[in-house]
Amino acid sequence: MGAPSDVIVKTDRLCKWFPVRRSALQYLRREGIFIKAVDDVNLDVRRGEVFALVGESGSGKTTFGKLLVKLLEPTFGTILFDGKDVSTLSKDELLEFHGKSQMIFQDPYESLNPRLTVFDLLVEPLRIQRRVKSFEEEVAAVTKALEDTGLVPPEEFYLRYPHQLSGGQRQRVAIARALVLNPKLIVADEPVSMIDVSIRAGILNLLLDLKDKFDITVVYITHDIATARHISDRVAVMYLGKLAEVGPIDDVVSEPLHPYTEALMKAVPDPDPEAKRAEVVLKGEIPTPINPPPGCRFRGRCPRAFDKCKEDVKPIEIGKDRLIYCHLYA
Amino acid sequence: MPERLLEVRNLKTYFYLESGESVKAVDGISFDVEKGEGLGLVGESGCGKTTAALSLMRLLPSAGKIVEGKILFKGDDLVKKSEDEMRRIRWKHISMVFQGSMNALNPLIKVGDQIAEAIILHEHGISKKEALNRAAELLELVGIERRRVNNYPFEFSGGMKQRTVIAMALALNPELVIADEPTTALDVIVEAQILGLMRDLKEKLNLSLIMITHDLSIVSEVCNDVAVMYAGMICEYGDLREVYKNPLHPYTAALVRAYPSARGTRRRLYSLPGFPPDLINPPSGCRFHPRCTYATDVCRKEVPDIIDVGGGHYVACHLVRG
């Protein structure tokens, strides 16, 4: 673990439980039913890295991302941003926090208001943050953000509406909107999953360039280990609201230790026709996270499950900087 | 010798806009599909892949017209068929898994009834009971328990809905199935399951497949041949291994390089600059020239012919001489 100053975000026992509507009987019995979307997650994101959060749909990775930027309030646990507990922030401090931590959403067809022009979309966060005082300042800030995200010449984009942009351009606008506030942290939730493969690379390279240029930390949420491998430094694999494995991306990809990570790696299709074909190790799909039983969440689908998996899992440190949440390695 | 099932020759499909302009969505494509083989139709959004598929099914929207070319299915030209004759070919001989169709299942009708509907409409005299029984068998074929015929779509997960629409496409034992982006919006694990299923079905039923996708890795999982489309034309076509190992067209090479591999070495991804062109006024000459790093004068003026460079590997590029 690095010195505290190396860590930009630290989560401690972070939980987000969504209550589910109960029947009258359950209500009378005071039974609580919860979707445990994020359950007891301890993670450190280090300053200046690209941290990938990988998992299937329903693994809780988007909820985790939203917690990080405080679009959701945790049920239990704390988030330390720059060493400060974000749940105790005053109104002014909260505004400042939102300026420092921004999110880019999955679907650029839905995340941009269709009735606002690109200029209005980009200027809105600046006005909310009271960063601009005159029209000239607004134009300057918007122009810079457009240039930084490769939307050139910027004048051509000011007055365009989202429907006049291609998918790749829309996602660049979404990135520009986050960038315009000079954030310290960007949480990018599946930023390329809705975009053609040929354009994906451009968006991912852009994120990397911006990270280096402006000293931004990126949390990259994805179900695609292949893209995570090319842009990130460390990775956390999530399953059903819990962590499965955390470590440097190269190590995790070349030698996945948790059975779930292994299954994920085997399922990735390879463009090389002579490569080994994707293998389906897992049957079925991710189960519901409503009141999951204790023990390892993955044990129902795990090909290597044994008796001990019914007990709760403690993280085990293996090698350098790697944590595995699996009884096999105890 | 493999039996040739489908031969497409110089197919052109244009859309006519109210303004009088025409969109040359498919502009002279030719390819073959053999019995029991899979062809991948690859390209970026807006390059005409889906229009090509809808042309094969003769399901174009009213503004779209096949203006030229032949679609020979077992030697019969589908372009010349009447709508009535087409209706007998569709689903029975050629069926399609439409893009996003897993979200188009009717939420108010049981899954089994939706599959049975197609069977009853096409096979005269079959009873509802028999059709439902077939529907249950089809669900089993795609890996869903047969008792789930009585479920509604909302009781199915995304992967199961995708399996259901594949089962629907197989309902009448077609010889050719066209799958348009069958795994988009699915997770890696479910995607691998669906691709594995399609590979199995292809072998088990000796099915021919056309897979439409922007993702080369999906083609590699299921197909033997690949046709790379750009701006309504095929720029490279041939055996998948050959095309992947030795891409001759700069566009194919860019697609291969842009693809992130989870297993290979880590590198900065290559990104192809620019966007596919507007097909109302496509660029002169080779349609790829504005994005091509190797473009020369001749590329700006003349449309390259598609030529055989040997072994059934076809390329349309001025840089490549036969």
Count of separate DSSP helical elements of chain A: 11
Helix/strand structural class of chain B? alpha/beta
Query: How far apart are the termini of chain B?
Result: 25 Å
Rg of chain A from C-alpha positions? 21 Å
**Helix proportion range of chain B:** 25-40%
* Category from helices, strands and their pairing of chain A: alpha/beta
SSE map:
The complex is a heterodimer of chains A (330) and B (322).
Chain A: E1 7-19, H1 24-28, E2 34-46, E3 50-54, H2 61-68, E4 76-81, E5 84-85, H3 91-100, E6 101-104, H4 118-128, H5 135-148, H6 155-158, H7 167-179, E7 185-189, H8 197-214, E8 217-222, H9 225-231, E9 234-239, E10 242-248, H10 249-254, H11 259-267, E11 316-317, E12 323-324
Parallel strand pairs in A: 3-8, 3-9, 6-7, 7-8
Antiparallel strand pairs in A: 1-2, 1-4, 4-5, 9-10, 10-12, 11-12
Chain B: E1 4-16, E2 22-34, E3 38-42, H1 49-57, E4 64-73, E5 76-77, H2 83-89, E6 94-97, H3 111-122, H4 128-141, H5 158-169, E7 176-180, H6 188-204, E8 208-213, H7 216-222, E9 225-230, E10 233-239, H8 240-245, H9 250-258, H10 297-301, E11 307-308, E12 314-315
Parallel strand pairs in B: 3-8, 3-9, 6-7, 7-8
Antiparallel strand pairs in B: 1-2, 1-4, 4-5, 9-10, 10-12, 11-12
Helix pairs in contact in B: 3-4, 3-5, 4-5
